[in-house]
Amino acid sequence: MVLNPERKEHSPSFSDVLQEVVSNKDYLVGSEPEGSGWDFSDWLSLDFKDFKGWVLSEKFFGIPTIDGRKLTLRIIQTDPKQFPIEDVKVSFVISPILTKGFPTIFVGKDNLGKEVILRNKTDSVEVRTIPEVFQSLAQEVGVIKKSGIVSDNEAGDWAMFLKGVLKEKKVFPSYYGPSEFMVRDQLELGPDESYSEEDALCAEMQVVEQELLMYGYADFIFTQSE
After folding, report:
1. What is the predicted pLDDT for the residue at 153?
2. Cα atoms in the 13 Å half-sphere on the side-chain side of 181
3. What is the domain range of residue 116?
4. Half-sphere exposure of 84 (CA within 13 A, CB side)
5. Which of 76, 123, 130, 218 is spaced 20 to 30 Å from 50 by Cα?
């Protein structure tokens, strides 16, 4: 009889990883590049919860590429009870900032509580797998083997890559605030009218809501479940 069987390490779900990232402002502390002098503490989210809407927060991060550049993305946290797509209650959305050619993915749970990844089925095949500039990093975090990527014609590879780099803390903190033009346009303010930080935060939330509602009426398909 085995009294103390070795337990297999539980792999956190994508939702678990994203929840930790958005809720912990010091998530990346200790992952600063050696000798850089960088400080990754106080990596704050834009917190919309006081507005009591269905978009809860927004947080930005960057992924370094082999050519020395950085792809910046954002994590949008939503209330799954108020943002269902295709019978999936969506908790998180990840989308690129100012960059085309990368899919927006949706992470949620189906009616059985299983985690599901959604993507827009109009995405081209090229954006459904891990781009070449991230292949070495994907190999480093264990998403792909040395033999290369096997294309499944879906966005599952990309989703698991994002989960891997966030879980292994191979990202950089980033921050984007709403521009003055966007705030004035969204709140319909004149050039001489003043606004507060709370007004700017509310305008950002409204813009994110509008973007996600457009996605919500788009044609989505399931790509992967755990």
Report:
1. 36
2. 0
3. 14-225
4. 6
5. 218
